[in-house]
Write a structure and sequence with these properties.
Helix content: 55-70%
Strand content: 5-15%
Largest sheet: 5 strands, parallel
Oligomer: single chain
Low-confidence stretches: 1-11
Distance between the termini: 77 Å
Order of helices and strands: HHHHHHHHHHEHEHEHEEHH
Mean pLDDT: 85
Number of strands: 5
Length: 292
């Protein structure tokens, strides 16, 4: 029985448990209670891990899956994972990486090779007209607010730092009082401003909410994300994509895209050389000159 068919016949895991709960054995009811209370955690677990967490044998865990109408634990877990795919992708990738029993040097080499491949895909799918439009949006905006949470907040901070010299007003949500404070700031934004949304798996609901609010106020949206199915892609006026692997350390690809955008902004900005010279002169007291 495929996971897709099992869902059509029996509904979600919680629905299946509800349908079969009264007929389950004592150990199976304990397992069912654990799964209902810890559905996401259970979705990350192998049969060994679930059995250990509940205090049952692997055979009992397998019988529990069959008692719910599945062929076995793999089909049960596949159904449990349904709906959590994006959030679980980094965990599954890490589990797969660990199972290879690779040396540290092999992991580093493979990770670098993956990053190079992803950068090449990003470059190959590059759309010049979209990038030109994105750079013009940045340079023409009266005010810019960069929104990102999790690792994307730090990437937004780097982008904010890079754009500050070439744009009159650039803010980012990093270090603010939370999404409510950002919402109050964005409430003042108009069609002359710009919101840059950085959103990669795992997608933050706060970013989606804030972009939705900005869109309702007709504030232009520039999205940096990974795929057309991303929740912010459809709301953005312009979307630039970075190919990322489903792993915890995919931020390097996004950073490369941000650096490329900022380099184009600097290139197209008026008096960019004068700005760079003046900025360096202002920073001289804090720069190390070496021994004279």
């Amino acid at each position: 029985m495929s996971p897709k068919k099992s869902k059509a016949r029996g509904g979600s895991i919680n629905e299946r448990i509800g349908q079969h709960y009264s007929s389950l054995s004592k150990s199976h009811k304990i397992t069912a209670d654990y799964v209902v209370a810890n559905s996401f955690r259970a979705a990350t677990m192998s049969i060994d891990e679930l059995a250990d967490a509940v205090g049952i044998s692997n055979a009992t865990a397998n019988r529990f899956a069959r008692a719910l109408g599945f062929d076995g634990y793999p089909q049960f877990r596949a159904e449990l994972v349904s709906g959590f795919e994006t959030m679980l992708a980094p965990i599954e990738e890490l589990r797969s990486e660990i199972s290879r029993a690779s040396s540290s040097s092999e992991v580093i080499s493979r990770s670098l090779a993956d990053d190079i491949a992803n950068l090449e895909i990003t470059r190959r799918e590059f759309r010049p007209e979209m990038c030109e439009h994105a750079v013009n949006m940045i340079l023409e905006a009266d005010r810019i607010y960069i929104v990102g949470y999790g690792a994307s907040a730090y990437l937004g901070g780097i982008m904010c730092h890079a754009l500050t010299n070439y744009c009159d007003s650039v803010q980012t949500n990093i270090g603010t009082g939370g999404s409510a404070q950002v919402s109050r700031t964005l409430y003042k934004f108009t069609e002359r401003d710009l919101v840059i949304a950085i959103s990669f798996p795992r997608y933050s609901s706060d970013v989606v909410t804030l972009v939705t609010q900005a869109k309702k106020r007709k504030v232009p949206i520039l999205a940096l994300t990974d795929r057309p199915a991303s929740p912010v892609a459809a709301m953005a006026d312009i979307t630039l994509y970075a190919q990322t692997k489903p792993q915890f350390n995919s931020e390097g690809i996004v950073l490369c895209l941000i650096e490329a955008i900022c380099a184009a902004v600097a290139n197209q900005s008026e008096a960019s050389v004068d700005i760079a010279a003046e900025t360096t002169e202002l920073m001289l007291p804090w720069l190390h000159h070496g021994k004279k």
